[in-house]
Design goal:
596 residues; Butyryl-Coa Dehydrogenase, subunit A, domain 1; 3 domains; seven-stranded mixed sheet; two-stranded antiparallel sheet; binds flavin-adenine dinucleotide
Length: 596
C-alpha cells in the first residue's frame, strides 16, 4: 500500500519561515491573508485529500477508465470524490472572486496541487486542466465568454481541456491542421481530429469546455497562423443552462503506461461550433497563458509524486530487515538490521529528501512571484516578477519532473524486488510520474526554451534578476560562522553556472546547434544551482531558528543535515555538467545519420 502523509510541517517552514508569507500582504487581494488562515486551509486540504483521493489511487490504476459509444466512465469512486472536491471549493482556491473564486495566494494552490499529485495524480488532472482553461479564457476571452464560462469552470460544474496535439503534430504546433470557418453570426465551425487530450471526455461534470487550437481559412503557415477557440461539448444557452450537443465526439481513449484513471482521449470536431478567444492568428499567445500555468503545475506533479515516493521508501527502509550494519549490529535482538542502516540506502533516501524539500522551496518562491506579477500595485514589481516567472517556468517543469521520476526510481530500488511488484504501490508512482517529463512540452523542449528564449529575453534582464540576489546572499554569508562553508561550496557551483551561461550564450549566438547541444545539461545545472540557493537559505533559517528558542529542534537539525548533504553530495554535479557543456556539440553530432 502507498504511504502518504501531507508534509505540512515542511510546507509551513517554506511558506512562512523561508519566504515570509506576510511579505505578500501589500498585494491587491492578499491584505487579509495570515499564516494562521493559510495553515488551517492546508490542514483541511490534507484531511480531505488523504481521506478521499489517496484511497482511490491504486484502485483507479487497477480499474482505469472505460470507453463505450463515445462516453467515458472514470473508475469507481472518482465521481463521488470529484463532487466532494468541487463542493469543498478546492478547485476555486486561486480563482478570481469576481467569478466565484477564493482569490487565495498562488503558493497555497500549488501546495494543495502537490498534495493532490502525491495522493492521486490521475485525479488531479481533471481539475488541473479546468484551472488552466479558466486562466486562458480570463486573460484573453471577451467579456461575454468570460461571464458565461468562468463561473462554471471555477465552481467545477464544467471542466476544461487543452486541445493542441494532432497525430502528425506534437512539439511542432505549426503543423496543425484543424480548421475553423467563420460563420455569419460571429461563431466558427471547427473540423479536425485531436489526440492525447487529457480529460477530453468523462463523467465528472455536466459539460466539458475544450480550448482548441485551429487555423482560419486565411491563416499564414506555421505557428503564426494559429487561433484559439472555445468549443463546448454542450452548447450553453444564454442563461448558462445546458443546450444542444455540439459536434464534438470522443472516438477512443488511450491504453497507457500510467495515469490510467486519467482519460486520454481522441477527440473529433465535426463542424463543431466554437468562438474565437483573443485575436485571429494570435492563438499561441493566448494558449501560452494556459501552457505556462500547466507547466508549473506539471512541475508540481513531479514534486508531489516524488514526495510520495520518498515517504513510501522511508517507511519501507525502517521495516525491512536485511544484513547487518557495517558499523556493527544495530538490532542484535532481530534476525538482521533494518536496511535504513546501510549507507547506500541512506544515499537514496537523502537524495529524494533533498530533491523534494529543495523543489518545494523553489516552487513556493516562483508561486509568490506569480502573485506579485498579477497583484502588485507597482509596475516595476510586476515586471520583475513576470521576468522571474518566465525564466523559471521551464526549469520548474523539467527539473521537478526529472527529479520526481528519479525519486520514484530510487524508491523502487529501496524496495528491491518488492518495489517491482504491484503490492507496495511504488511501481505505480514510477509509471504515473513518467508522463510529466513528456506532456506540456517535453523536458528537452523546456531546455531549448530556457537557452533559446528565456536567457536572451530583454537582453538578459531576467537572468540578471535571478543572479543578483544569489550574488548578494553569497557576499553576505560566505563568512557566516554557521553556514559559511556551505555558502563557499555553493559559490563554486554558482560560478560554474555563470561560466556555462556565458559559453551557451556566446557559442549559441554563433551556432544555434551549440545551444541545442548544451540545453539539457544547462537546464539541469541551472536547476541544481537554483535548488542550491534554496538549500543555503534554508540552512540559514534553520541555523538561526536552532540557536533561538526552537520548539522542534529535530526539524531544524534535519534541515541543516539535508542542506549539507545537498551541497556536498549533489551540487558538485554542476562541475561535471560544465565540462560536458564546454565539450560542445562535436561528439554529439559526429556520426552520419546512416550510422544509427
Ligand atoms: C498521457 C498524455 C496526456 C496528454 N495530454 C495532452 C493534452 O491534454 N492536450 C494536448 O494537446 N496534448 C496532450 N498530450 C500530448 C503531449 O503534450 C505530447 O505528446 C508532447 O507535447 C510531445 O509531442 P509528441 O508526442 O508528438 O512528440 P514529438 O514532438 O514527436 O517529439 C518526439 C521527441 O523528439 C523531441 N523533439 C521534437 N522536436 C524537437 C526539437 N525541435 N528540438 C529538439 N527535440 C525535439 C522531443 O523532445 C521528443 O523527445 C498528452 C500526451 C500524453 C501521452
Amino acid at each position: 500500500m502507498q504511504t502518504y502523509t501531507a508534509p505540512l510541517r515542511d510546507m509551513r517552514f517554506v511558506l512562512h519561515e523561508l519566504h515570509d508569507s506576510t511579505s505578500l500582504t501589500h498585494l491587491t487581494g492578499l491584505e487579509e491573508i495570515t499564516p494562521d488562515l493559510v495553515n488551517s486551509i492546508l490542514e483541511e486540504a490534507a484531511k480531505f485529500i488523504c481521506s478521499t483521493l489517496l484511497p482511490l489511487n491504486a484502485s483507479g490504476d487497477a480499474e482505469g477508465c472505460h470507453y463505450e459509444n463515445g462516453a467515458v466512465r472514470t473508475p469507481k469512486g472518482f465521481k463521488e470524490a470529484y463532487k466532494t472536491f468541487r463542493e469543498g471549493g478546492w478547485g476555486a482556491l486561486n480563482a478570481d472572486p469576481a467569478y466565484g473564486g477564493q482569490g487565495l495566494p498562488a503558493s497555497l494552490g500549488k501546495l494543495v496541487d502537490e498534495m493532490v499529485s502525491g495522493s492521486n495524480l490521475s485525479f488531479g488532472l481533471y481539475p488541473g486542466l479546468s484551472h488552466g482553461a479558466y486562466l486562458a479564457l480570463k486573460s484573453h476571452g471577451s467579456d461575454a465568454l468570460k461571464n458565461l464560462y468562468l463561473p462554471k469552470l471555477v465552481d467545477g460544474s464544467w471542466a476544461g481541456t487543452m486541445c493542441l496535439t494532432e497525430a502528425h503534430c506534437g512539439t511542432d504546433l505549426g503543423l496543425l491542421r484543424t480548421r475553423a470557418v467563420p460563420q455569419a453570426d460571429g461563431s466558427f465551425k471547427l473540423s479536425g481530429s485531436k489526440i492525447f487530450i487529457s480529460a477530453g471526455e468523462h463523467d465528472l461534470t455536466e459539460n466539458i469546455i475544450h480550448l482548441v487550437l485551429a487555423r482560419l481559412p486565411d491563416a499564414p503557415a506555421g505557428v503564426t497562423g494559429i487561433s484559439l477557440f472555445v468549443v463546448p461539448k454542450f452548447l450553453p444557452n444564454a442563461d448558462g443552462t445546458i443546450g444542444m450537443r455540439n459536434g464534438v465526439t470522443c472516438v477512443g481513449i488511450e491504453h497507457k503506461l500510467g495515469i490510467k484513471a486519467s482519460a486520454t482521449c481522441q477527440i473529433n470536431f465535426d463542424a463543431a461550433t466554437g468562438w474565437l478567444v483573443g485575436e485571429p492568428h494570435k492563438g499561441m499567445r493566448a494558449m501560452f497563458v494556459m501552457m505556462n500555468s500547466e507547466r508549473l503545475s506539471v512541475g508540481i506533479q513531479g514534486l508531489g509524486v516524488g514526495e510520495a515516493a520518498y515517504q513510501s521508501a522511508a517507511a519501507y527502509a525502517r521495516e525491512r530487515l536485511q544484513g547487518r550494519s557495517l558499523a556493527g549490529a544495530q538490532r542484535p535482538d532481530k534476525s538482521a538490521d533494518p536496511i535504513i542502516v546501510h549507507p547506500d540506502v541512506r544515499r537514496m533516501l537523502m537524495t529524494m529528501r533533498a530533491y523534494n524539500e529543495g523543489c518545494r522551496a523553489l516552487g513556493v518562491w516562483v508561486a509568490n512571484a506569480l502573485d506579485r506579477m498579477d497583484r502588485a500595485k507597482d509596475s516595476a514589481e510586476r515586471e520583475a516578477a513576470a521576468d522571474f516567472v518566465a525564466l523559471l517556468t521551464p526549469v520548474v517543469k523539467a527539473l521537478f519532473t526529472d527529479l520526481g521520476f528519479e525519486s520514484t526510481n530510487l524508491a523502487l530500488q529501496i524496495h528491491g524486488g518488492h518495489g517491482y511488484i504491484v503490492e507496495h504501490g511504488v511501481e505505480q508512482l514510477l509509471r504515473d510520474v513518467r508522463i510529466a517529463m513528456i506532456y506540456e512540452g517535453t523536458n528537452g523542449v523546456q531546455a531549448l526554451d530556457l537557452v533559446g528564449r528565456k536567457l536572451p529575453a530583454n537582453m538578459g534582464r531576467s537572468l540578471r534578476r535571478f543572479f543578483h540576489p544569489i550574488a548578494q546572499f553569497i557576499h553576505a554569508h560566505e563568512r557566516d560562522p554557521q553556514i559559511g562553508p556551505l555558502v563557499q561550496s555553493f559559490a563554486e557551483s554558482f560560478g560554474a553556472l555563470q561560466l556555462a551561461t556565458a559559453l551557451v550564450v556566446q557559442a549559441g549566438g554563433i551556432d544555434p546547434e551549440e545551444a541545442g547541444a548544451a540545453a539539457t545539461d544547462y537546464l539541469r545545472m541551472f536547476g541544481l544551482v537554483a535548488l542550491g540557493f534554496m538549500w543555503v537559505r534554508m540552512a540559514k533559517v534553520a541555523a538561526d531558528a536552532a540557536t533561538g528558542a526552537a520548539q522542534d529542534a529535530a526539524f531544524y537539525r534535519a534541515k541543516r543535515a539535508t542542506a549539507t548533504f545537498y551541497i556536498q553530495r549533489i551540487l558538485p554535479q554542476t562541475g561535471a555538467l560544465l565540462h560536458a557543456i564546454q565539450a560542445g556539440k562535436a561528439s554529439m553530432t559526429a556520426l552520419e545519420e546512416a550510422a544509427f
